[in-house]
Specification:
Blueprint: E1 2-6, E2 13-19, H1 29-40, H2 48-51, E3 56-60, E4 62-63, E5 66-67, E6 72-77, H3 85-88, H4 115-122, H5 128-134, H6 139-155, E7 159-167, E8 170-171, H7 182-189, H8 199-214, E9 221-228, H9 244-253, E10 258-263, E11 281-284, E12 288-291, E13 299-300, E14 303-304, E15 309-315, E16 326-328, E17 335-337, H10 348-370, H11 376-391
Antiparallel strand pairs: 1-2, 2-6, 3-6, 4-5, 7-8, 7-9, 9-15, 10-15, 11-12, 13-14, 16-17
Helix pairs in contact: 1-6, 1-10, 4-5, 6-10, 9-10
């Protein structure tokens, strides 16, 4: 599978085209909209989420609730576009209009953003041409794409859930997820303001987010994604670009403001001996092969082991601050305080939703690379056969 997205933060719409989905996959706008609403939620979100009510329109590739096998096109309209038609319009400016008179031009790049380097790369003197596309607004349609991928995974008996494990050093008790299914974790997370499984930690997170907002500052954190029901042997060890963990890591780091990724116990492995890291292999007639622990996060040699896949990503504090840092005006070269755009004091809860959906896409894509099928029933049969094969190996 593959997809492309198009659209600017304050443009008329965000668009994506997905190619390679099997036919006969049930898809509805209602389920996608549920995930889009989750992305807009979470404590710490800014005023933009009060302006936009993201809903998807399926404009191609689906008929009567099922995919056709042809490309699926999704559109999310930007409600705020009506206030930006002159500023962001696609038509050339009239001859008597001075480009410098257009409102909201930006010549003061914000530290930590793509503004300055993006302007250098594409030759933009008005840095709005950079920030409009580099904005995390684009993740709206990436969540929509991931929601479609989750629909496919659900049909294959694979569940995926995300939650926040840490915000500015406040750590959730992650043992609370042990023994719980993805559905049980999701029920807890979706009722929590910080999308956290630990109510005590969540309350402290809320306080920290509110304090950061009052101070005009921003804070980051860590999110975790768990994939259950994954068949063993997806991915490959034979080439670097076929390793599943490498693909998942790239997906996580492709999210705006994400700067680190780990699997299983992650960087804790550097502080342990090998006997305290690797998962012992066990077998039972009922379950087949499994692991006594899951410290490696369900991945060995670039392949899924059949254990839950556990991947975490670290999100830096959002660089758009209401107490802006020093920058340099690219026109005058004079020092200035960086421009302020509408932003969030903490987007970690919302980012956990984005992480869930980019991981879902990579999991679904890896499965379709390995189990070729044009029709969903055929794909389901192949996955069931893979499970039978690996259990009895």
């Amino acid at each position: 599978m593959r997809y492309l997205t198009a659209g600017e933060s304050h443009g008329p719409q965000l668009t994506t085209i997905i190619e390679g989905l099997p036919s006969l996959l049930p898809i509805t706008a209602e389920k996608i909209n549920h995930d889009l609403k989750r992305r807009q939620g979470g404590h710490g979100r800014g005023r933009r989420m009060q302006i936009e009510t993201d809903t998807v329109e399926i404009v191609a590739g689906v008929r009567h609730g099922q995919t056709l096998g042809s490309p699926v096109a999704l559109v999310v309209t930007n409600d705020d576009w009506k206030h930006w038609t002159k500023i962001m319009g696609a038509e050339p400016l009239a001859e008597d209009v001075n480009p410098e008179d257009i409102k909201r031009q930006i010549s003061r790049p914000r530290p930590g953003h793509a503004d300055l380097v993006g302007g250098m790369k594409y030759g933009h003197r008005d840095l709005r041409n950079v920030l409009e596309r580099s904005s995390a607004r684009e993740t709206t349609v990436r969540v929509a794409v991931g929601s479609v991928a989750k629909a496919l995974l659900n049909e294959l008996g694979i569940s995926i859930v995300s939650h926040v494990t840490e915000i500015i050093g406040i750590k959730a008790d992650t043992s609370l997820v042990e023994g719980k299914s993805a559905d049980e974790i999701r029920a807890i997370v979706e009722s929590d303001p910080c999308y956290c499984v630990d109510p005590k930690a969540s309350a402290k997170m809320v306080e920290a987010i509110d304090e950061a907002k009052k101070a005009g500052d921003s804070i980051g954190g860590i999110v975790e994604v768990i994939v259950e029901g994954m068949p063993a042997g997806v991915g490959s060890y034979v080439h670097y670009d076929r390793k599943l963990d490498a693909k998942l890591a790239a997906a996580m780091l492709s999210i705006n403001a994400f700067k680190g990724v780990e699997f299983g116990i992650g960087f804790e492995m550097a502080r342990r001996k090998g006997s305290e890291v690797h998962d012992e292999i066990i077998w039972s007639e009922e379950q087949g092969y499994s692991r006594a622990t899951n410290r490696l996060g369900g991945l060995e040699g670039g392949m899924s082991t059949g254990m839950p896949i556990v991947v975490r990503g670290v999100m830096k504090p959002i660089p758009t601050l209401y107490k802006p840092l020093q920058s340099v005006d690219i026109e005058t070269k004079e020092p200035f305080k960086a421009s302020v755009e509408r932003s969030d004091s903490c987007a970690v809860p919302a980012a956990s939703v984005v992480a869930e959906h980019v991981i879902a896409w990579e999991i679904a894509n890896a499965i379709l690379e390995q189990f070729h099928s044009d029709q969903l029933p055929q794909l389901k049969a192949q996955i069931e056969e893979q499970r039978r094969y690996t259990k009895g190996f």
